[in-house]
Amino acid sequence: MTARLPIVGLPCDRRVLGQHPFHTVGEKYIAAIREGTGALPLLLPVLDPPLDNDAVLAAVDGLLFTGSPSNVAPQRYDGPAPRPGMWLDEHRDATALPLLRAAIAAGKPVLAICRGFQELNVAFGGTLHQHIEDVPGRADHREDKAAPLDAQYAPAHDVVVQEGGVLARLSAERRFAVNSLHSQGIDRLADGLRAEAVAPDGQIEAVSPIGAKGFVLGVQWHPEWAWSSNPVSRAIFAAFGAALRA
Q1: Which of 56, 89, 135, 188 fits 127 for a cystine, CB–CB 3.0-4.6 Å?
Q2: pLDDT per residue over 67-76, tens digit each?
Q3: Domain map (residue ranges) of the chain
Q4: Would you name the residues annotated as active-site residues?
């Protein structure tokens, strides 16, 4: 008999196309789960009211919280009102934030990327900068949206890995280059999280919960992009896959 593949749930974005709402996940995340971990991707709609957390956790072996063009609503962390035109997705917020807390409490493996990384900080009580490029002393972490995708996702700056954490255990590299495609980022790190990697300007780029029961890693960059050609990305998805099977 063929062994059952582990199942990874991916909370969707909610987008209105024409007059109808759709629940979507970028193909690069879906492909990285199938190819990088050998797991079966399962897209989770972000309905109102949200799916029951216990039912979701009973159906999946782990969760990937993806990046998105949308931002976490500032009201979720008592931030200032967003600027006009900022794209929010409060349906995703309502699903992802409590699901993150429930999954980590249950010991489910979790990988959180870009928006998911920011959700992880907010879920634990931290706050976000809405526009890092306006923060004194910080670099501009945004991509050039007019550039080809390969240029947008090219390495943009280094990160320095902190000793004793998840990243330090899964890769021997202590400084490596990452892509950078974000305007939001961590302001106050949540009390229950530790910094795993930091950019040269001091911006936190990776985190993990202190004392987590299972594998949990949040990264601000996009390891899913061309994951197989990057040794750190391969290590991240391999570790996530091993945790799913454990």
Answers
A1: 188
A2: 999 999 999 9
A3: 7-245
A4: 114, 222, 224
